[in-house]
Amino acid sequence: MTTLAWIVLGGLGMAAISLVGSVTLVLREATLKRLLLPLVAFAAGSLIGGALFHMVPAALATLPAAIALRWVALGFLVFFGLEQFLHWHHCHRASAGCRKPLTYLILLGDGLHNFLGGLAIAGVLLVDVRLGVAAWLAAAAHEIPQELGDFGVLIHGGWSKRTALLFNLFSGLTFLAGGLIAYAASAHVDVTWLVPLAAGNFLYIGASDLVPEVNKPHTLGASLVHFATFAAGLGLLLAVGHVAD
Fold it and tell me: What residues does each domain of the chain span?
């Protein structure tokens, strides 16, 4: 399969994940609350594992260490700035209670996040398809709890179910748009810098956005579940590397 086909497939797959929020319509709120935080912990482990086990080593293999690590830092900074200037935060709990005007900021931030993610992961695919697939898996693990939370917030903010699903789909398709732009640009510019940029993105979201969601006082049982699912996320991305080798 060509690299372009991988990029299109990954973009359509991410758009399909944007519809996962519809399961909140059939799950009881108590069940959803029990599922979300373990999913967030798993996503955090997957993102950090994808960055540490795949993208950072690949960047260090293709770029001078000082340059690669600067791109990692820039990737971290870009997503910190995104949250600061858009006042956007991932709402991982369906009962987050965000006010209706914030629903537009959530969609705007999510669309921009997906666009930059598509740009970065397509850049990784262009460097190494196996590395790109690992990065996509880590990003997909993060998207599932995010989309569950975002859909619940849109419904809570007064959106109809059909409208919320439609706009979540549009937001998800920006991932494909970013991927196609990266592919077109690769014919004219070197895109290897997108690999460490994506690593910084993954490290920021995992460590600064997701870990704090689960690193709060809980019962011993819940804390053990969160630790186990975080470790499972790390283990999955480590295993992906061994399978690829």
Answer: 3-244
